[in-house]
């Protein structure tokens, strides 16, 4: 299903009427759309250039999933941590499994660590397993972004650590979410796991909505000082699924609370079958 860009003619009554106590600062970006038809239910500055932070790892996962489907390796294949990956793991001492140069980890555990807890050395190691090094992997990321019509996106690394020239938009992230849903439904479970265990230690998903929002079933968090707190989230109720992207929030607490409001509003839009939009194929 190709991504459909729908221009909202009037802000929805439900979103406009509902008081939001936890709304992010005024220059946040947001996009809410239904999974079935790609109807845009709400948007705010969704075409603005933003820093994705660890939302980048969704593209890293996409390329790993492609490699798995092409039998370049399997989920139980062991990859070796390089000195480069170890150094990347040290940049943010929170987002790390503390893996060292020469350590080994399976592709499956590397994916879990990258997508559930956003561990940066896992992203770098997977990138090296696919492309040999991060520089060549970034080229693959940008080639794939072009194929997915992510026309306002440029990647410089696999983890989302801040670099000049590493940017995207919420609309482009929506195209990536749609592509993941369409091409790799068998791997969607990696975005929905509430926790994973590695070497006896339990790590809980940094996407808190999976634990405290009804129907939440994915996707990915991101944070850097430059990007702010970012979240792509999805939730399913009955036969309807709503996807939402929120970037540039000043704290994860406000991000999480506002995301709940955005998802609530999305489900109400679908329920009331609001039709105040014009469909534009893009």
Tell me the overall shape: globular
Q: What is the CATH-assigned architecture?
A: 3-Layer(aba) Sandwich
| Helix fraction by DSSP (H/I, runs of at least 4) | 25-40%
Number of strands: 11
Distance between the termini: 12 Å
State the strand order across the main sheet.
3-2-10-9-8
Which secondary-structure class do the elements indicate? alpha+beta
- Note the total helix count: 9
Order of helices and strands: EHEEHEHEHHHHEEHEEEHE
Q: Which runs of at least 5 residues are low in confidence (pLDDT < 50)?
A: 1-14, 16-21, 275-282
Number of domains: 1
Q: Predict the CATH topology.
A: Beta-lactamase
Fourth-level CATH superfamily: DD-peptidase/beta-lactamase superfamily
Radius of gyration: 18 Å
Mean pLDDT, all residues: 88
- CATH top level is Alpha Beta
Strand residue percentage: 15-25%
Major β-sheet annotation: 5 strands, antiparallel
């Amino acid at each position: 299903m190709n991504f459909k860009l729908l221009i909202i003619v009037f802000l929805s009554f439900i979103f406009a009427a509902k008081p939001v106590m936890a709304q992010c600062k005024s220059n946040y970006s947001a996009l809410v759309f239904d999974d079935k038809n790609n109807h845009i239910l709400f948007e705010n500055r969704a075409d603005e250039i933003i820093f994705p932070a660890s939302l980048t790892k969704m593209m890293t996962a996409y390329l790993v999933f492609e490699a798995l489907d092409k039998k370049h390796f399997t989920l139980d294949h062991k990859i070796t941590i390089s000195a480069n990956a170890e150094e990347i793991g040290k940049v943010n001492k929170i987002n790390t499994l503390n893996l060292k140069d020469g350590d080994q980890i399976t592709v499956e555990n590397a994916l879990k660590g990258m997508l559930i807890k956003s561990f940066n050395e896992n992203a770098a190691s997977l990138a090296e397993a696919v492309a040999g090094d991060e520089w060549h992997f970034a080229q693959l990321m940008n080639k794939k972004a072009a194929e997915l019509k992510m026309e306002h996106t440029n990647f410089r690394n696999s983890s989302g650590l801040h670099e000049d020239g590493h940017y995207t938009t919420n609309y482009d992230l929506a195209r990536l979410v749609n592509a993941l849903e369409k091409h790799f439904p068998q791997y969607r479970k990696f975005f929905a796991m509430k926790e994973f265990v590695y070497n006896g230690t339990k790590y809980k998903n940094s996407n808190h909505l999976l634990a405290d929002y009804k129907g939440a079933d994915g996707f990915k968090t991101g944070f850097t000082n430059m990007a702010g707190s970012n979240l792509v989230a999805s939730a399913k109720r009955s036969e309807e699924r709503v996807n939402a992207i929120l970037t540039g929030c000043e704290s994860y607490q406000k991000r999480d609370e506002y995301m709940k409001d955005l998802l609530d509003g999305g489900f109400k839009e679908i329920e009331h079958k609001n039709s105040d939009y014009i469909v534009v194929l893009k």
